[in-house]
């Protein structure tokens, strides 16, 4: 029995080592001859600083909007039963099984329709414009955020809300004072994952807004453009910037949350 | 006063019909029934957590059938107590006060009183995760009582507790009931707990309330054989009426050739008639003692001792009637049993008073 347990222990540890080892080898092999001065030189250029700024700002806005909508939407899905619930629940997975480029194509067709053209003329441009980046990122991450928040709400017994109601809470007060505080960790996890997914988003973004330098260029599109023009050093530097930006963002969210976010 | 008038509730797996209850101010009311009969559904409906199909819920003369839970002025302690895990014990207790924005000066005297009576003063700063089952119940009671509810609804408050903690909490519940003068409606499947705590007991079976009455009435005089079985009446027999004295309100019964006499205080139940008596009401007459005159007209039966089961606090003695082998069970306190010094197979006499024999329907 003891041997079986230690074998099991060894196997799961090996799996973890393989996973981490794979990423470490991938990065180590790619960057072992890489000179960090190239990183600072590239960051110093206006174009890249703009791309980093656009990526961070757009990902943050898209995450905020996605969570703002995903929280109440997933709460309804978690707590209420209604006809067609399974169908709606499945729709949330569209961004998972439809590739980002296909989502971008859908968005492009939709936002070049006469109705949305009218909207863009009177309010703000979307196609080949910065707001389009937010929309592309939002489309990809909203379902993911809702899915994560739903599983968080599913794990919180509705009994807490019921007890809160008998203690004088309205449904809104029960949600705000009981459910939301209990969902804090799930909320932070959803924010972290959504933001990380948004900042790395490429397919839907490039399809909807293109990759105009100093305009709609994000870090992932800059990586693509560098590879497309066979500038491998620049591409690797952009990948390093993307990794560093994403990691910094994740650490900041975890730091603000005050404790480790488990997901 | 809480009144349920012809309440009908339909939920997945439950269809409760014609539920009528009346809980008067200051009463400790028990809804007793086997698990899965719908007791919890009833108190959750009173709390406003389920919608009824028809019927009324009236609290202090006001129809609250369609009022949301927060407008009903009730407090509900569910079976799992559901203390908010992200709040400390004190924050849990004061939750209702904070929501209603009630000034600390208003609730402070009651808070101090509750903390003292429920003995939770040393646990106020901790989170519920660290509390024992009994402590959780006490905190949940404090959280409910501080809102000064018109009625406190308790759903199986002791079902998850160990016997010693359960006994402690029974005392606590009795104490808060007396100390705070609160009206309580408690659901339980434990007949012993029901009879320890309740003033009025309603027995629920098959989705309906089948008997309501004062504790002793339900305990000693169940109206049907099913209720008698559920409330633990050990001696139950089918009976044939062989004589009736309407003046004395006395009835003569026969079960397989063994005669019994009983009183009836209302109408005689519909046939098929059953009768029974509790094991604690079977008296044993010592061999060396003459039969007292006052029991000469009671049910005196010659029996043979078949088996004795030690139960710690008492002994269960299983007899057979000497000629017809009718099984009779007696529950005897330890000190009585020790004085008896009987052996298995020995013939002896027992008697059951007529007033302790209960007539019932099937």
Written description of the protein model:
The complex is a heterodimer of chains A (263) and B (362). Chain A has 263 residues and is mostly helical. In chain A, 79% of the residues lie in helices and 0% in strands. Chain A has 14 helices and no strands. Chain B is α+β, with helices and mostly antiparallel strands. Helix content of chain B is 25%, strand content 35%. Chain B has helices spanning 39-47, 89-93, 95-99, 104-118, 133-145, 163-180, 191-197, 215-220, 225-230, 334-340; strands at 2-11, 14-23, 28-32, 54-59, 62-63, 74-77, 151-155, 184-188, 200-205, 208-214, 235-238, 240-245, 250-255, 258-263, 274-277, 283-285, 299-310, 314-321, 327-333, 347-352, 358-360. In chain B, strand 18 (314-321) and strand 19 form a beta hairpin. In chain B, helix 4 packs antiparallel against helix 5 and helix 5 (133-145) runs parallel beside helix 6 (163-180). The two termini of chain B are 33 Å apart.
Tally of DSSP helical segments of chain B: 10
- Are there runs of chain B of 5+ residues with pLDDT below 50, and where? none
* Shape verdict of chain A: globular
Largest sheet of chain A: none
**General shape of chain B:** globular
- Give average pLDDT of chain B, whole number: 90
**Uncertain segments of chain A:** none
Largest interface: A-B, 18 and 24 residues
What is the H/E string of chain A?
HHHHHHHHHHHHHH
Task: Name the structural class of chain A.
Answer: mainly alpha
Helix content class of chain A: over 70%
Helix percent of chain B reads: 25-40%
How many strands, which pairing sense, and closed or not: the largest β-sheet of chain B? Answer: 6 strands, mixed
Q: Helix count of chain A, per DSSP?
A: 14
